[in-house]
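User: Fold this; tokens only.

Assistant: Input:
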Amino acid sequence: MIFQSYEDGWQHLYSMDILSGKIQILTPGDYMIEQVKMSSDRKKTGLLGQCGSRKGRFR
């Protein structure tokens, strides 16, 4: 399962193994993921991210 969360103070994508419950960050770094889009043929995924000066501070 893939989900968005502010787990580390930035909005990122995470995956969770359904069987073990283990969570892993997929998009680490000092920026936030704002949008996730899939191509019409469902073969590619695009991400839109924004940089910031401090985690947890959004305008």
